[in-house]
Amino acid sequence: MTVDGPDASVKDRVRALVAAHRGDRGALLPILHRIQAEFGWIDPDVVPVLAVELNLSRADVHGVVTFYTDFRSEPAGRTTVKLCRAEACQSVGAEKVVAHAEQVLGIKVGQTTPDGSVTLEQVFCLGNCALGPAAQINGRVVGRLDPRRLDALLVTETVNS
Ligand code: FES
Questions:
Q1: Which of 77, 116, 127, 149 has the most Cβ atoms closer than 10 angstroms to its Cβ?
Q2: CA-based angle 25:44:141, to the nearest 5?
């Protein structure tokens, strides 16, 4: 995708995804999920394409993209760390892990390191409450996190990604 908007092949692919869902009730959400799955993020430049194709306003499409935290408006880093901040994990030290992650990575939750190596995100329960503080790193759920264990996992994951 470029500063002038998505290239023709991206537009064609987005139009094909729209065509696959044309006539479906509430087609926007499944289309956005498919775009995210295919490209890893939803370039803001595809919003006008979707608006035209689905006969929606750009504001409507933008509103849905920004409402759901699952949708990214920029590419993720090579490693994605999702730290659980729900109650059970909070009660066993999740906030300490979050503060440590922000400090060592030099970014806030919701950001990606400038070198594109790590994206730090928050989630609210990974179903791993008994082993909190929990996180999901590159799709793998890990538990019993503390700052030292997180450091070790970051080294392993960023070396392998
Ligand atoms: S509260 Fe963290 S995994 Fe459930």
A1: 77
A2: 80
92 Cα: distance to centroid of ligand 1 (angstroms): 10
Name the amino acid, one letter, at 5.
Answer: G
Q: Which residues, 6+ apart, have CB-to-CB distance to 151 below 8 Å?
A: 104
Q: Which tokens hold the place of 118?
A: 């790590």
Quick: pLDDT tens for 74-83: 888 999 999 9
Atom of ligand 1 nearest to the CA of 133: 2
CA 59–ligand 1 middle distance (angstroms): 34
Q: What average pLDDT does range 103-122 have in this prediction?
A: 94
Q: Which residues line ligand 1 (CB under 6 A)?
A: 84, 86, 88-89, 125-129, 132, 134
Same domain, 51 and 95: no
